[in-house]
Amino acid sequence: MASHLRLHLAAPPPLLHNHRHRLRLPRPPKLPLLNSPAPASLPLRRPRLLSSAPLRASVDRAEEGSDGEGEGLVGEDAAVFRLGDQRVLSWAYFSGILAVVLYALNVLWIDPATGFGTSFLDAVGSISDSHEVVLLLLTIIFAIAHSGLASFRETGEKIIGERAYRVLFAGLSLPLAVSTIVYFINHRYDGIQLWQVQGVPGVHELVWLSSFISFLFLYPSTFNLLEVAAVDKPKLHMWETGIMRITRHPQFVGQVIWCLAHTLWMGNSVAVAASVGLIGHHAFGVWNGDRRLASRYGEAFEVLKKRTSVMPFAAIVDGRQKLPADYYKEFIRLPYITITALTVGAYFAHPLMQASSYKLPW
């Protein structure tokens, strides 16, 4: 039979035949499908291409879990320092860059024999004989350079790169900040005395405690020291934990606390002028900082903004920010410990700082 089938398939039928022989093969029997659901019971799934964007989804999850805990975060966990993530070479670069910057700052700006700092102070001081006016002018010049460069950061980084822009930012801001600080130290008691409370019991302790607390707010830049020195590529961070739960703008709050404490202690017009200039600069920074974060992070920042506040503890009091049970652990981290140690050290180093400042004819 097999040979007959092969012969039949190999030879075509004669043309005289008006019909064709068809080979009919047996069909397999129909077997019942086991455990197959009815078509109507199959779930309908939305195509993945029609789903929401990842950012929108993350924002929605954050809004649903807006208690400020873990999964609901849209910002970054602040002050995280994992020893396993650190590289010895990076911190060696940081130390080297810091040494070079301090040396260059001394030679090119601070040292009266070689630097431009004295000429700069003389030029600003020639505008007015009033220490209050000169101090305000120094603060305004610093604020324009600092906030101006921060405002154009996104554009500037596209032109020259993140690291180069960080170097430019520090190269202009740091000398101006040093000039303002030294001038304030040298002339802090040269103004009109408005009140005198230094002999009142408890005032010294209040001022010291206020200053200590202010530094915990003032320096969130220690969260990313390697970026400050441009060892790592600088980024515009949107922090959300730690001190940020208390206030969205800790530098502004810290500056206000510091200014009020020192103005109370010194009680003169120079201290008032310094406070007006510094608080005004940081108040502008509140608006400018929110603007930059909104431009960079969009909806994610709007979510963070809804559950944080500029006024300390306001979002916590009205329920927009719910602290996790282990909130205190967000402060038991190396950056905060470093700030604490440096603040205590700076207090005891006050005589040395003042002696160094008095050596400059500023």
From TrEMBL:
Stored Pfam families: NnrU (PF07298)
Gene Ontology biological process terms from the UniProt entry: carotene biosynthetic process
Protein source organism: Lolium multiflorum (Italian ryegrass)
Compartments in which it is found: Membrane
Main location: membrane
Membrane topology type: Multi-pass membrane protein
UniProt xrefs under InterPro entries: NnrU_dom
Protein name: NnrU domain-containing protein
Entry keyword set: Membrane, Transmembrane, Transmembrane helix
Membrane-traversing stretches: 91-110, 130-152, 164-186, 206-231, 331-349
Matches recorded under Gene3D superfamilies: 1.20.120.1630
Domain NnrU: 134-353
GO MF term set: 9,15,9'-tri-cis-zeta-carotene isomerase activity
A GO-annotated cellular component: chloroplast
